[in-house]
Write a structure and sequence with these properties.
The protein is an alpha/beta fold. It is built from twelve helices and twelve strands.
Length: 306
């Protein structure tokens, strides 16, 4: 059995060491394709592998066609929209993610962006504090729960909405559950987005939700850019000089937002949520362990395709 680690953005050396230590004692060979610059390199590398670990690397039908022996793909991270699930299912390939491994890193970044925004992006002018402010968490999963924990440490009043999670689960964490996204956005000055990218969530966050937020509104997006309607966001920010948007997923209209809303808009140069040494190591080793458990024992616990 051969396990390929294909990472345009490589894992840290200690993470690669951990991956090897997980797969090699199980009798599997670990091979690396790091910092590749052309898709042809990936297509060549997957020809004889049984398992594939990726980060943000795209696994589409062309890659799956080339990987004749492939049985499993694990995306080292929570999001998996870079893997074509339908094509994987058609090729009888199991796709997994590694939920929870990057959660703390993303949660800390979300609060860091809030502090940066509320302090006027450190431009030397007077800002305000998070203490006593209302924070709404849109989608209360692993990351949302950690955002709530950290935000309570800042003394924020935390609310959450999750379309399928019982209010009792949310409120057990000392967070106020609301019954709709509309209620969340009307109640909270700060919103932290943790909505996954799916066909039904594309452009989910639009004018009606954003325009109804309280004065001094701030939207923090560490999820996916596709969930925000970018044209509606521009409209709201044009109408409301008090509205700020901070994200670690550069929008498609980044240049427009930068030009029009200096001091109220910020995007990291690339997605930074999982860019910590700890998250890098945790996700890589979790991916390796899941592959071993699948190939040896048939365990499909974290499978995300049908």
């Amino acid at each position: 059995m051969k396990v390929l680690v294909a990472t345009e953005k490589p894992f840290a050396a200690v993470a690669v060491k951990g991956i090897r230590e997980a797969v090699e004692p199980a009798g599997m060979e670990c091979v690396l394709l790091e910092k590749y610059t052309d898709k042809a390199q990936l297509l060549d590398a997957v020809k004889d592998v049984d398992a594939l670990i990726v980060r943000s690397d795209k696994v589409d039908s062309e890659v799956l066609d080339a990987a004749k022996q492939l049985k499993i793909v694990v995306r080292a991270g929570a999001g998996y929209d870079n893997v074509d699930l339908e094509a994987a299912t058609a090729h009888n390939v199991c796709v997994m993610n590694t939920p929870g491994q990057n959660s703390n890193a993303v949660a800390e970044l979300a609060l860091g962006l809030m502090v940066y925004g509320v302090r006027s992006m450190f431009n030397g002018s007077s800002g305000s504090e998070l203490l006593g402010k209302k924070l709404g968490i849109h989608a209360y999963g692993n990351i949302g729960r950690l955002v709530a924990r950290i935000a309570k440490g800042f003394g924020m009043e935390v609310y959450a909405y999750h379309h399928s999670r019982p209010a009792s689960v949310i409120e057990a964490d000392g967070v106020k559950a609301v019954s709709s996204a509309e209620e969340l956005y009307k109640t909270c000055q700060f919103i932290s987005l943790h909505v996954p990218s799916r066909p039904e969530t594309k452009n989910l966050i639009g004018y009606d939700l954003l325009s109804g937020m309280p004065k001094g509104a701030m939207l923090i997006n560490t999820a996916r850019k596709e969930v925000v309607n970018e044209a509606d966001l521009v409209k709201v920010m044009e109408e409301r000089p008090d509205f700020k948007y901070l994200t670690d997923i550069m929008p498609g209209n980044h240049a427009e937002l930068t030009e029009k809303f200096a001091g109220r808009y910020f995007s990291t140069p690339k997605k930074m949520g999982a860019q910590t040494a700890e998250a890098n190591i945790n996700a890589g080793i979790a991916a390796a362990n899941q592959i071993v458990n699948f190939l040896k024992n048939g365990n499909r616990t974290f499978q995300v395709n049908k």
